Amino acid sequence: MPANYPAKPVEMIIPFAPGGGVDLFGRTVARILNDEHIVPARIVVTNQPGAGGALGIAEMVQREGDPYSLLGIAIHIHVTPLTLGTQYTYKDVTPIAKLYSEYDMMVVRQESPFKTLKDVADALKKDPGSLKIGGASLGSGDHLSISRFAQTLGIDPAKLTYISYSGGEANAAILGGHVDIGLGGLDLMDIVQSGKMRALAVTSPKRLSGAFKDVPTYVEQGYDVINENWRGIFAPPGVPPAEVKYWQDAIVKMSKTEAWKKELEAHQWFSTVETDTFAPDLAKENEMYRNLLQQLNLVKKS
């Protein structure tokens, strides 16, 4: 690696439109790496949306060996190739680091007869299609977390009555009693704290802190369900190990700054920094998503 690396601006591609969660992630990482003088060269964020992130992944592949290109992405690197049948997967780019994760919660409206996760489990085991379950689009984190829950109960996830909503429509459906069970992100905690909803479980591996400390995990209630929507950084294929190590060290250093910790707290992001274990974890994770999406008949036939 040249002693003056990086000697020119670095481009970070975000394969989604400006304003979304992955865009916020990429811009926050770029800003803090520069503002904290961890990376001396300017990091320029470029949005390249299309095909569920596939266009940005393809762009990375075309830049083989280029240590001045980065990709910021989430679990789309698994889900998009599986559900859309796009050409490139996580195997075609170089993992740098996972930085943080977001989790899903299962909620019910305050008047719901379901007081615990076991109540929901018992109802689903009795009749898998009897409950209307509301969440984000098919194949989303919401859909995958309730599907994994069904698997732990010995239920075919395809038999669930899952209704997909966009934006805040799911919240209105939960509160209005149009669905029996709701799935959503940690931002639902505001409604829970208002007394209009109850949180039955969160998909984190252990209890979260702060406002979420009283929300039990699926795991502690006896159900092997962990579902994290992580954010990570990748480089093109063929980038030399020294440059990969440079970015891993930079990200670990950034994760320890007060500036980064403030962002985690402000956005309800939970630090799950991984570097060396990121690549093997991706392989295990991909197999899990493939299995789950196949059961849901969402894997695109090649």
Quick overview of this protein structure:
This protein has 302 residues and is of the alpha/beta class.
pLDDT < 50 stretches: none
Largest sheet: 10 strands, mixed
Fourth-level CATH superfamily of the largest domain: Bordetella uptake gene, domain 1
> If you average the pLDDT, what whole number results?
95
| Structure class | alpha/beta
What's the number of extended β-strand segments? Answer: 10
- Amount of beta strand: 15-25%
Order of helix and strand elements from N to C terminus: EHEHEHEHEHEHEHEEHHEH
Number of domains: 2
CATH architecture tag of the largest domain: 3-Layer(aba) Sandwich
What distance separates the N and C termini? 40 Å
Reading off the top of the CATH hierarchy, the class of the largest domain is best stated as Alpha Beta
Number of helices: 10
Shape: globular
Q: What is the helix content?
A: 25-40%
CATH fold description of the largest domain: D-Maltodextrin-Binding Protein, domain 2
